[in-house]
Amino acid sequence: MVVGELAHERDLIIIGGGPGGYNAAIRATQLGQSVTLIEKAELGGECLNKGCIPSKILTHAADKVASFRDFDDLGIESDGIRFNIEKLQAYKDKTMSQLREGVRSLCKANKVEIIKGSAFFLSEDRIGVENGEQYEVYRFKHAIIATGSTPKAPEGIEIDHKRILDSWSITEIKMVPEKLLIYGNDYIALEIAMAYNALGSQVVLIIEEDDFKFDSSINRELKRVLKKNQIQVIKGSIVTNAYVSEEEVTIHIVNKTGEEAITGTHLFVSSFYIPNTDSIGINRIGIKTCENGFILVNEECRTSCKHIFAIGDVTEGPNLAVKAIKQGKTAAEVIAGIPSETDLRFLPIVAHTRPPIASVGLTEAKAINLGHSVASAIFPLTSSGYASVLGKKDGLIKVIFDKDDHFLLGMHIFGFGAVELISSGVFSLEMAARDEDFSFPLYPHPSINEGIAEAVEAIKKQAIHLSPAMKKSLKI
């Protein structure tokens, strides 16, 4: 087909069927738009097929295995358990297949046209789509780029997806590594470390920084939990290269004390990501990118071509599905003429570790650096009656307020239920809540929720379940 001779007319074309793309598609049809969604691989994108869902199935299984160790205390007796990773892989594949079909059904029910193929811009209003021998051209009024990103290993490390693994292949292996070396300091590295530790791996975690990236109080408790679980942490170290032999991996690390070689059976690298833009022709139409190639967008998710939008991991910012979903809905609403924007200021960060970590807003150090007069307090879950009932006493809840105007600045939770509880912090920050807004409501009892109220009350030395001695030790 010669470009320009014939083109199929479309209102809105979306390139990429991940969480951002299909959420944008469905929201756009809800608002009366005619939508065509182009996906070259599987619906659901990296999140469903390679990232979020596979990794959370792994962490869920690991949590179940770890929880079994507490059964005897509850009078539930057994001769033991055996973990079968092949059955877990089958469960993972079945779950992913069901979720993909769910996405497809939702798109069909909302009259989203789905086209299989690789899309690329021919001009500012035309897209070419290839699928094997088939080639079609589409003219559009608006387009949304939702092509995501791809993990890339640091220099000196080559991912072979067998012994040296990245975030896409770590959940594909059909064995529990005997000794797993992990290089990275993000939530994925921590999830993998704790998951395989629970499944029986000896785990060594190597991080480039001198500490983790959470609030200092979370970091202290995290280090205690890692030590309790016999996960070795090597800080301030860079992995310069990795070598694979028949049955092991050897890495060389450099730190302040010199160089060291460490051997394990497998190496997991929590890589940085590069945007999937090379093959879609954005340079042809002049869409602006930042230095590392991610597409620049404004709060409406518009690119430098005003009728073309970009969302999710292909744009600057954290690679999180929650960002992609919000941006997808924003772009669809703006295209439909509805005022909308994406503000990532109160983006929650979560790690499905054991126990989970969830954070939103400013850390205490960041709040101080920004000039706030800070009032903060911690409620350790050892003081929670419900945490004791559940046998989930590791962790804490920390709140950070501005001492002068009493507005909430940040909430950080490390403990059972953290991922669900952090929504209280998100809502409170969005609504500019003060400390009194936490003290006035009634909290369900018994629950971990009560810990939020007690953390706020601890700022005023009013927490009921913190003894004076504990308040002093926590520097409240």
Automatic annotation (TrEMBL):
UniProt GO MF annotations: dihydrolipoyl dehydrogenase (NADH) activity; flavin adenine dinucleotide binding
Domain Pyridine nucleotide-disulphide oxidoreductase dimerisation: 348-455
Domain spans labelled FAD/NAD(P)-binding: 11-328
Pfam families named among the record's database cross-references: Pyr_redox_2 (PF07992), Pyr_redox_dim (PF02852)
Catalytic activity: N(6)-[(R)-dihydrolipoyl]-L-lysyl-[protein] + NAD(+) = N(6)-[(R)-lipoyl]-L-lysyl-[protein] + NADH + H(+)
Cofactor note: Binds 1 FAD per subunit.
Cysteine disulfide links: C47-C52
Co-factor requirement: FAD
Keyword Hydrolase: no
Gene3D superfamilies from the UniProt entry: 3.30.390.30, FAD/NAD(P)-binding domain
Keywords, alphabetical: Disulfide bond, FAD, Flavoprotein, NAD, Nucleotide-binding, Oxidoreductase, Redox-active center
Enzymatic class: oxidoreductase
GO biological process, one term: 2-oxoglutarate metabolic process
Binding positions (NAD(+)): G184, N185, D186, Y187, I188, A189, L190, E191
Other comment: The active site is a redox-active disulfide bond.
NCBIfam families, per database record: lipoamide_DH (TIGR01350)
Record family assignment: Belongs to the class-I pyridine nucleotide-disulfide oxidoreductase family.
Name of the protein in its database record: Dihydrolipoyl dehydrogenase
Lineage, opening ranks: Bacteria, Bacillati, Bacillota, Bacilli, Bacillales
Gene behind this protein: lpdA
